[in-house]
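For the sake of clarity, the format in which proteins appear in this thesis is described at this point. The fold follows as a row of integers, each naming the local backbone shape at the matching residue. One such record is shown here in full, so that the layout can be seen directly:
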Amino acid sequence: MSTALVTGGCGFVGRHVVLRLLQQEREVWIVDDLSTGKHPDLWLRKEHLRGAPPVTFILADVRAFFREALPGASSSISQLQDGVPDFGDVFHLAAVVGGRAKIEGDPVTVAQDLAIDADFFAWACKARPERILYASSSAAYPVDLQQDGNALPLKEEFLQLEGQMGQPDMTYGWSKVTGEYLARIVARHYGLSVACVRPFSGYGGDQDDSYPIPAIAARAARREDPLHIWGSGEQGRDFVDIEDCVDAMSAALERISDGSAVNIGSGKLTTFKEVAQIFADLAGYRPQIVPLVDKPVGVHARYADTTKAKALLDWHPKVGLREGFRRVYGQALERIKNG
């Protein structure tokens, strides 16, 4: 099988994509600067590598990799001195990303994603991998469709890349709109096979606690009372287990080639009060659930219309919300026990 490239492969989503590729006995290259990701030595274990081809890890800013990995380019990245393979599948996950505090508190730093994606697609047009998976986001959807009293299940066609479009969610949303536009351009004008996915609120036990699900799980595992949540707690999201997300990405790569996008979501809206209550139930106690209204919260309601994913990808989430949260809670307990 051809070599796969995963940019941002040490981040939360990237780690799960890499592990899935290794299960498929794929040779994998990872590019990550570890600004938020974890070094492979911390999560790639012997059982992951047994029988699998080698993993090549490039510790570098992904933009430098794109510039220096082209034929004839001089490189300061030692692993590139002998050249790079012709990549089959490329999962472009690299981005400046974080929880709500990062998106709202440091929007100019997040705007570097515009440069990352521009460099990526310029590289792809010359390197010409067989297939590209571009990770967009539900943050690309117009925020006026996600307000209290005006929230709709978000359909793919609500985001128009040509003609009139709404306001996406801050610089992160703008960067993903631009990335999708570039994906359409390189598919249409350069003949590359590109699939875009718009994940909603993916979660998992190894996710950074700057994200709400592992953070609330950890508070419940410590049996905090009151149990704090950000905002009023009435705001809701569409939560999807990370393994279901990776399944959908794989299906999109197989079935989409024209740069168009598909939602990855459950189609169900869950409020943060409900999230906190589930984790309190799992912990076996009844805390007072207290909103922190001074914290950033984002839009009121963001959830997916899943019609296209079911029809085009033959995909729907396999992991129920309570089962997925139970796994996250178990890992939070384990971390607390281990110090």
The chain has a mean pLDDT of 93. The longest strand covers residues 258-264.
